[in-house]
Write a sequence for this structure.
């Protein structure tokens, strides 16, 4: 396989794992085949995936590959198994490229952007700090941190003490939680799955 196609596969797999957290080889092979259109064999794909693991792009356990932010592979797989009725959220190569380039804010939906703007205000206009906080909060949500726990963390981290600020923070966290793509939902948000919006 030529290097250009290998790079394309690794970029796409990195994007898939950002949204799905964990995926086992058979499903991954099918998604790569559908998106990239290359009929590479299992051995060739495994070789490429091993390159990604050795480069520290993602990791593997058994026959599954996972995003480096995943704290508990088995928990993600169990959550996905409970949602057998939903398929994986489609991930475009453009989305995968944004992940590879670290341009995650370009993937944010309107609810994430609203939360970011709120954070920027609370961070005194420091957009870089706000973006880092949001990315950290989303990783914690994907790793099963409950909204109440996250709200408490946000309140403490931002030094909010007024009761109105605390209530607003809790409401913002709950709204964010509904619109973060979750690994256990195969890249869909709770709002996508529960409300179809």
């Amino acid at each position: 396989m030529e290097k250009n196609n290998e790079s394309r596969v690794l970029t796409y797999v990195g994007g898939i794992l950002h949204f799905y957290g964990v995926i086992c080889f058979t499903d991954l092979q099918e998604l790569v085949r559908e998106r990239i259109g290359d009929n590479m064999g299992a051995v060739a794909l495994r070789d490429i995936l091993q390159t990604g693991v050795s480069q520290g792009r993602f990791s593997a356990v058994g026959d599954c590959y996972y995003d480096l932010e995943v704290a508990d592979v088995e928990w993600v797989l169990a959550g996905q198994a409970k949602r057998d009725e939903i398929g994986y959220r489609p991930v475009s190569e453009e989305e995968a490229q944004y992940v590879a380039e670290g341009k995650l804010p370009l993937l944010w939906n309107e609810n994430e952007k609203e939360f970011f703007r709120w954070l920027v205000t609370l961070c005194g206009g420091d957009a870089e700090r706000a973006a880092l906080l949001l990315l950290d909060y989303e990783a914690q949500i994907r790793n099963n941190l409950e909204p109440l726990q996250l709200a408490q963390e946000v309140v403490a981290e931002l030094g909010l003490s007024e009761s109105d600020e605390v209530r607003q923070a809790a409401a913002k966290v709950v709204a964010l939680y509904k619109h973060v793509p979750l690994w256990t939902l195969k890249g869909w948000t709770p709002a996508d799955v529960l409300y179809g919006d």
Remarks:
- The longest strand covers residues 22-24.
